[in-house]
Predict the structure.
Amino acid sequence: MNDAHLHLLVNHFPIIGTNFGLGILIAVIIFKNNAVKNVSYVIFIVTAIFTFISMSTGEGAEEIVEDMPNVGKQIIHEHEEFAEKLALVLYVLGAVSLFGLYANLKNYSKAKLIPYVALVIAIVGVVLAKSVGTSGGEIRHTEIRANIQKAQSSEVEDKE
C-alpha cells in the first residue's frame, strides 16, 4: 500500500464528514438537543483528524501520479491549494468543536454560542470541500474536467 492508495482511502471523509456534521449541527440548532450537539462536535473532531491524515498522504500521492498520462502538475497544484485552505478551516472547526464539546460537558454558559460559530465555519468548509473534491476528482477522471467539456461541445459544433 502506497501514499496514493492511503490518500484515496482517507480523503473522502473530510468532505463527507463536513457535510454530515453540518446537517446534524443544523438539526441541533433547530431542535436544541445537547446529545446530538455532542455528536456533531465529535464528527467535526474526527473530520479534522482525517484531514490531517489526508494532507499527510497527499504529497506522496502527488509524487506517484504527477507523471502519469493526462495528469498535469497544474491540476494537482490547484487541488493542493484548495486542500490546504480546507485543511485550515477544518482544523479550526475541529478545535472549536473540541472546545464546544468540553464547554457543553461542563455546562458553561457560553456553550450556547459555539454551535453558531461552528455553523459558520462548517458552511465555509462545505463550500471549500466541493472545490477540493472536484479538483481531486479531475486528477484522474478527465471526463469531469471543465476544459474537456468545452472541447467536446466545440467538436459537436464543428461537426454541425
